[in-house]
Specification:
Blueprint lengths: L1 H34 L1 H26 L12 E2 L6 H15 L11 E6 L5 H10 L14 E3 L5 E3 L17 E6 L7 H10 L1 H18 L6 E3 L24 H14 L6
Parallel strand pairs: 1-4, 2-5, 2-6, 3-5
Antiparallel strand pairs: 3-4
Amino acid sequence: MRAALLAVLAALLLAVGFLGGRAVSSGGEPAAVTRTVPVTSTLTETPTVTVTQTETETETETQAPPPPVARPAITQDPIPYTAARRAEMAAYAQRHYGIDTSRLSHPRLIVLHFTASSSYPGVHATFANDTPNNGELPGTCAHFVVDQDGTIYQQAPLDVMCRHAIGVNDRSVGIEMVQETGPSSSWADQQILARAPQIHSVLALVGWLCSRYGIPVRDVIGHSMVNDSRFFRDNEGWRNDHTDWQPADVARVRAMLRARYPSLTG
């Protein structure tokens, strides 16, 4: 009897051991889950990459474009740019550039001039009169005149052509500066460069125009340089014979622009 009980007890112990082994084996299945941890880790790394990309994008977004150059104070003193004058300008543009319009759609150049006179009122009157120049209408004009005291006078809207430089009127803004010619054009340029109120206003105006239209500093040129501009063309074979704003003096203006407005291109 006792032997029978011991046999039953042994059988029960073996059964418990077998079930315990199954429990270990069954408990081992979470090890398979445990082995999925690297997958979880890999998935966790993906957001890390995303974060890195986000940080890169944020850095790119924070690199804002250079601020535009502020518009200087400008006194409006427009010449009469009537419908008749617009028609004259369109006819001139058709003859010289092959385009039937008076509109200046996108300036590519800024041309510097001086007036060969000592006061602003006479310059304005000449531009307003609309008298033939070189036998053709419209009369000459420039978009701006900068007086010796630094006052900037706007003569015509920036979306119309002015006759200020042969071969580039269809793609340039003209700026006159009140100054007599004196012994030479270079001497006259030097007077303007040395006259602080005037040259400071010139720089402010040119810097603003370059910023507004994306004109490189290298395309700020003097009237004497127009024939050599890559934008020059004239279907009638006309050429400029003016000597105002010599290349060496324009180089000084460009250097001053770059120093004052580092955001400008070219």
